[in-house]
Amino acid sequence: MSLQTDVRGELRGALIGCGFFAQNHLHAWQEIAGVRLQAVCDRDVAKARRAAAEFGIAGVYDDAAQMFEREQLDFVDIATTMPSHRALVELAASHRVPVIVQKPFAPAWADCIAMVQACEQHGVPLMVHENFRFQAPMLAVQEVLRSGAIGTPTYGRISFRTSYDIYAGQPYLASEERFILLDLGIHLLDIARVFFGEVRTVQCQTQTVKPGIRGEDMATVLLRHAGGATSVVDVSYASQISPDLFPQTLVTIEGTRGSLALRQDFRLDIVSDGQVQTRDVSTPLRAWTSQPWHVAQQSVFETQQHWIDCLRRGVEPATSGADNLKTYALVEAAYASARDGTTAVPMQRG
Ligand code: NAD
Ligand code: 89Y
Which residues of the chain have pLDDT under 70? Predict the structure, then answer.
């Protein structure tokens, strides 16, 4: 599909969903060269108006269908919560507008498949905003693995444990039936695929610790990868620990030539053929980022930049809809394993 762009060669975008996390999208779009948001949409129009006023955006809508009728768009960024994703992605596809959509892709596997198919049928690029693999420390880990410094990975642990009050900014999480695996585990399972390759089998145990929430707020997942490595992904929103490193993800990887450890505050220790080195893999604050969210905010910028680069080059994004099905299948397998007490094999697209 060919991009139109406006007279200045800028890509014209629109954002649907102007809530809590979309504020990061809005700031990041402002910093990405050659992109201009020309419309915002939220069914709570006051939020769309606020975003338009703060970021100088002309079009304001409370109805996405109307927005697609009226605006000439080169892409749309969907930052609503997952129940609305399928209808909005299918709407964008029917208007032949390329789509980037927030994680989790959808509440159910069938919706994910439907979105990928709709975009394929209309020849429309589709990317899931799966940003953890674009975090600066995760990019640094990927670079070490690619360099061969630690050899072939044999074992890994990817861990995110906190009791930071995520419910203050994202109150809907407390009533999710499928909670931490779908909200947060999905990011770490995605990283596990990037570091260790595709997954053959999944075992998982879940726990609900915080009183009054609906779903699980702790999960421990054991993965066996096709290349032979094993990895453990563990996530918790109920860990009363010190220091509480929210929203840092910690990583340990052992390989045939050495190991690496991504530790507290973005310290990366690398052992290669018996030689030890330490790197600082943090990045400077941007004007609109602040602690503790900075590592996540920075990755929003990187994710959106990747989407734009791929759109311009006409290549499939790393976290395309099709790619994200493989990550989503790990979440499904983890829930099946936890429910049935069995070892699950991830589903594949039929
Ligand atoms: P939110 O509830 O604060 O914002 C969502 C907004 O979408 C609301 O303003 C709502 O009115 C609007 N909306 C919903 N359906 C709509 C529709 N059909 N048309 C127009 N507007 C609609 O939620 P949030 O916390 O900002 O989360 C949004 C998404 O971002 C979720 O999928 C969440 O998982 C994801 N998220 C991702 C990260 C990350 O690091 N990638 C972090 C936090 C949240
Ligand atoms: O919802 C979660 C996510 O996707 O990244 C961090 C988060 O906002 C809270 O853990």
Answer: 1-8
Sign of the torsion angle spanned by Cα atoms 62, 68, 72, 73: positive
Q: What pLDDT shows up at residue 9? A: 81
Pocket test for ligand 1, best of 80, 132, 190 (most atoms within 8 A of CB): 80
Alpha helices (runs of H) in the chain, residue ranges in sequence order: 22-31, 45-55, 64-70, 85-94, 109-121, 136-147, 166-169, 180, 186-196, 294-313, 321-340
Closest ligand to Cα 101: 1
Rounded-to-integer distance, Cα 129 and Cα 324, Å: 10
Q: Is 188 in the pocket of ligand 2 (CB under 6 A)?
A: no
Which helix (H) or strand (E) is 13 found in, with range?
Answer: strand 11-16
Tens of pLDDT, residue by residue over 298-338, are 999 999 999 999 999 999 999 999 999 999 999 999 999 99
Helices (H), 148-217: 166-169, 180, 186-196
Name the residue of 183, 294, 331 whose CB sits within 8 Å of the most ligand 2 atoms, as the mutation to test its pocket. Answer: 183
